Amino acid sequence: MLRAHILLLAGLCATLSSAVTIDMEGLPDTGLDTSTWVTGVAPPLEDLYELNDLQIAAKNTLKPSSYASYRTGALDEITYQANLEIWQYIKLNGFTFRDVSDLNLNTSILGYNFSLPFFIAPAANAGLANSTTAELSLVEAAGDAGMLYVPSISSTKSIEQIASASVSPDQVMFHQEYVWSNKTRLQDELTRIEAAGFKAIFLTVDNTGINGIRTRSIRFTGEETDPGHASTFDLKALAAVRNMTSLPIVPKGIKTWQDAKTCLDLGFEAIYVSNHGGRVLDGAPTSVEVLLDIRKNAPEVFEKMEVYADGGVRRANHVITLLALGARAVGLGRSAMFSNLYGKEGVARMIYLLQTELGTSMKLMGESDVSAINSSYINTKWVENRYFGFGSS
Ligand SMILES: Cc1cc2nc3c(=O)[nH]c(=O)nc-3n(C[C@H](O)[C@H](O)[C@H](O)COP(=O)(O)O)c2cc1C
């Protein structure tokens, strides 16, 4: 009897001591209860109802160095935070008296059909969340959902391993590439990407010679060594890269309307507006602000090119906002990496949650067709006043 009591007490103590309190990093408080979670153990996936929950689950479960590697932004993380906060300054217009019974979330990206207007953005080292499947679970979950996945050139798995994880011969993927100073490496990778069946290159154009200084992660890793990016990357070099592949190249990391216009003038089919999740130039504007700037100064960009955008997207309302500003598709970086903690199931849940939110918000806004989302659905005056200055037209 005494022994039973002691065991019960020990069990209770163990339970109490394993209860975790997690710093939620100022994410919206939607009532996530972590009191029964155990540090280092993934909480039940079905208890996670939104993309922020997936981040907190990753924070609870991954090695602190791995979490920091995904979560970190550059310098003071001003751009990282701005990416998360910009949405509260946008108002969504919900129209009534409309038939929203026939929901359509399909879109095309560079002429390829996808079932969702959001995609998994290139993010390095998926193996930090899931050492077994790494990028392969992202390929499978994206393929099952009919959505686009764009693996990073700094992936855990090889270009060929990622390509061969496709769920069907019809699955379309693009691939990210950096402008390496080693041109042989660049040519070799572009050739392998094309041979492996990827249909386009997202070329990260603004890591010119260097990465952002990401303090949160270098506290674990020590200072970063030379990443091998070319610091001589100018328009001549861009033209040379275009000649190294027959795949369409989409410049990723456009952050000014001037660069957007340059890409248009150079005949690119698409651009990708991105501050890379606040990991590169701290102080760079959010995609909302850059899209507004392009709309103001070079509106023809949206008529003649496809525009993709990302940064801080955690809710379907954020997707809707970027689509309303003229983006054709919207990227998800960290959320996909965090969800991959659970492998394919986790990534599938992330997609399902965002898809459900998207259908819900669209219906509540009186729009059933994703391709019809336009600027009439948002009010951006608050952001415009802050960005362009009060009283500007
Ligand atoms: C862990 C991690 C690794 C990344 N690696 C790359 C990369 O290799 N190439 C690249 O162009 N962007 C990279 N990015 C940026 C993403 O493509 C994307 O722009 C960004 O994550 C979007 O912001 P979000 O994380 O708030 O969704 C990375 C982002 C993260 C979080």
Automatic annotation (TrEMBL):
Name this protein carries in UniProt: FMN-dependent alpha-hydroxy acid dehydrogenase
Protein's organism: Athelia psychrophila
GO molecular function, one term: FMN binding
Lineage: Eukaryota, Fungi, Dikarya, Basidiomycota, Agaricomycotina
Family per similarity comment: Belongs to the FMN-dependent alpha-hydroxy acid dehydrogenase family.
Residues bound to glyoxylate: 178, 214, 276, 279
Domain FMN hydroxy acid dehydrogenase: 43-383
Domain of life: Eukaryota
Active site residues according to the UniProt entry: 276
Keywords for the protein's UniProt record, in alphabetical order: Flavoprotein, FMN, Oxidoreductase, Signal
Cofactor: FMN
